[in-house]
Amino acid sequence: MEKQIEDEINLILAECYENGMIPFHQSIPDIRDKAITRAKILGLIKCKNKNAYELSIEGLKVLDFDGGVR
To answer: What distance in Å separates the CA atoms of residue 49 and residue 3, rounded to the nearest whole number?
Structure first.
C-alpha cells in the first residue's frame, strides 16, 4: 500500500475514534477519497449514514493493537 494512502487511512481512523465519525462529501481531496475507499474495502470503517462513516470493530482493533495500518 502506498505510504500516502496508509497515512491518510490512519488519519481517518483517528478522526473516527475521536469524533465518532468522519463526514463524506463530493468535494474531498483525491487522496482522502482513495483512503476512504481502501478503508471501506478493508473493513476498517462502515457507513454511519448517507454522508458519514464510523469506525468498525476491525478499525478499532487496528488502532488498539497495531497503532494503525502499515
So the answer is: 29
